[in-house]
Amino acid sequence: MTSGQGDAPDDEFVEALVELQADASVGDLVPWCSRHGIDVLPMTAGALLTGSSRRFAEAFGVAHLESRSRPRTLAVPPALANTARSVTVLSAPTPGARDRQP
What we know:
The chain has one domain. It contains 3 helices and 5 strands, in the order E-H-E-E-H-E-E-H. It has helices at residues 30-35, 53-60, 97-100; strands spanning 13-20, 39-43, 46-52, 72-74, 84-89. A 5-stranded antiparallel beta sheet has the order 2-3-1-5-4.
């Protein structure tokens, strides 16, 4: 498992949901994600990817995962085209948001 948030913005902990192609399995994601230092957790209808912002930026070819106040859909890399239908980076949690809910 990735250890969580680091001190530098590039080490910020990132979570992303992957919707799989109809004939793909979570196991199909593991080799590619492992090569890029991203962890894979199986879910009922896909997978949760976790890792540092830097690893995600390198793996998915984005310059930087800027403000994460809203979910962001990333382009599926060609190597995952037969496996992943979509990859969505989840918004960063807002500290104390749980405490403010009614």
